[in-house]
């Protein structure tokens, strides 16, 4: 389990937004992250500007941690980032509660999907994996200390995160998201190592994916290449190459979905990268 087969990512986890687009929309980037109408408008403009098939929301991987209670700095150039973690002392772990989807930014994200679908758009919902969320709501040094010294506390935390992710994906599918783009950038095999990946990170991701498999309906989960190859490296998924067609990677996915109604998981590539040979990699959970 050397990690040599892990996908090499060359993209950014964040969306860079030009001042010109924000000026034309007459919105601030922070407001576009927090208000469903402004968010859907910005997502539509970014789709046009980048020449892609899908409107993508949210614009970063901080939304879930924000919903749990961490604070976020909104930056249209460098990308959004966690400013202050919710928990920096073990004593406060008990304060962590499941996400409330009826309020806040995460509620606005789901509302933005509804608005985009009403406008006839195809929508991609960015979803962050459990370890990235965990290290964003619990100060990372504390989190990794807990892995060594209090695995029970870590398991409780991951259970809360997993429940919230399943609910988030379910609500995204029900709102009409065509693709769930799932990535756990802080939790891949090359980052956390084989033991932690197999026992915690990969196992947690696999539980989430298994729980949502039956509710995807016409949606498909695109697993970030680093995450999907990590899962395969430890035997949590199998993969196979399939052929489709399209002028872009997004079109290739969409056409495959139309022709293969039972397609659930696609991976081993970056959804932000173009691909011209019409190959896709389908993933089967083990």
- Largest sheet data: 5 strands, parallel
The Rg value, from CA coordinates, equals 18 Å
Total strands: 9
* Coarse shape: globular
Adjacency order of strands in the biggest sheet: 1-4-5-6-8
Secondary structure category? alpha/beta
Helix content: 40-55%
What does this structure look like?
With 286 residues, this protein is α/β, with parallel strands linked by helices. 47% of the residues lie in helices and 16% in strands. It has helices at residues 19-25, 29-34, 36-50, 63-68, 104-118, 130-137, 140-149, 151-175, 189-192, 194-212, 225-233, 249-259, and strands spanning 54-57, 71-73, 81-84, 122-128, 179-183, 220-224, 237-243, 265-269, 279-285. The strands form three sheets. It has a five-stranded parallel sheet, sandwiched between helices. It has a two-stranded antiparallel ribbon with strand order 2-3. β2 and β3 form a beta hairpin. The chain is globular. The protein starts with 18 loop residues before the first helix and ends with a strand. The model has no long low-confidence stretch (mean pLDDT 93).
